[in-house]
Amino acid sequence: MCAGFAPNVCRFLLTFGTKASPTRDTSSGTLEDMPEFLLQRRRHLLLAAIALVLLLLAARYLLPAGTTTPAAPLPPPPGQGPGANGTSAARVVVDVVGAVRQPGLYRLSQGSRIADAIARAGGATPKAALAQVNLAAPLVDGEQVVVPTRGQAALAPAGSGSSASGGAAVAPVQLSTATLEQLDTLPGVGPATAQKILDYRTKHGAFSSVDELDAVPGIGPKRLEQLRDLVVP
After folding, report:
1. With a cut of 50, which residues of the chain have pLDDT below it?
2. Residue ranges making up the domain that contains 112
3. CB 108 within 8 A of CB 91
């Protein structure tokens, strides 16, 4: 009965009787249960705090951060898709002629250089005068790249039709695009022969080789050798 009380309190209770009033029993029971109640409450609070911390950690590290739906590819901006002529704005088409192994039309990427066009045409021939060509110049859509042979003068602007004294052409004449006046500037080629060259081109298409001049009436092997270094396909 005296458990949990001081000796003086215990002695007082023994003196006046062991049966305590209901009020004292209730007070005594409350005093005895109070430390255990506080201990359990602290334990519950501690467990709740630990559970909350674990829940927060699980939400941060264990749960997925969420999925992201990949965005659909954007349509190409205007001007980047195929044009009306079927060619892409990111590519250029050039005509490579002259002292190359495979003259013709070639499609290259935007930003390519003249050196790239010559390489696509099979490279320059041994007679090519590459020193007269700016290999680093960027290509322009619709441009004609002319590679002259050694011994020819530097290229003049296209369509200039200028000639040196004595009737020799300053720039190689392009057989596939030259006018009658430009062909007339070639030595030994008068208006009549120039017209025959135009007629041949109309019938057979653009020249792929200078050697095709041999098939034009009025131009024999001797005249061909005379013109070989003055013209390009």
Report:
1. 1, 4-5, 9, 12, 16, 18-29, 67-68, 79-81, 83-88, 153-170
2. 81-149
3. yes
In a domain? residue 74: no
Supply angle C-alpha 205, 115, 161, rounded to 5.
Answer: 50
In a domain, 69, yes or no: no
Under a CB-based contact definition with an 8 Å cutoff, are residues 13 and 2 in contact?
yes
Q: Which residue from 97, 226, 121, 108 is spatially nearest to 167, judged by alpha carbons? A: 226
Tell me: do 145 and 175 sit in the same domain.
Answer: no
Distance, in Å, from the CA atom of 28 to the CA atom of 24, rounded to the nearest integer, reads 6
Judge whether 144 lies within some domain. yes
Q: Supply 228's token pair.
A: 């070989």
- Domain-terminating residue out of 110, 131, 149: 149
Answering whether pTM is above 0.85, one says no
The phi-psi region of residue 215 (left if phi > 0; otherwise alpha if psi is between -120 and 50; otherwise beta) is alpha
Which CATH number belongs to the domain containing residue 87 in this structure?
A: 3.10.20.600
* Confidence at residue 67, expressed as pLDDT on a 0 to 100 scale: 47
217 found inside a domain: yes
End-to-end CA distance of the chain: 128
Query: Which one of 100, 122, 149 terminates a domain?
Result: 149
> Residue 51 corresponds to which tokens in the numbers above?
């559970």
Number of domains the chain is built from: 3
* Rounded Cα–Cα distance for residues 184 and 214 (Å): 17
**8-50: pLDDT as tens digits:** 545 545 554 544 444 444 444 455 566 777 788 888 888 888 8
Q: Residue 86 has which token pair? A: 């079927």
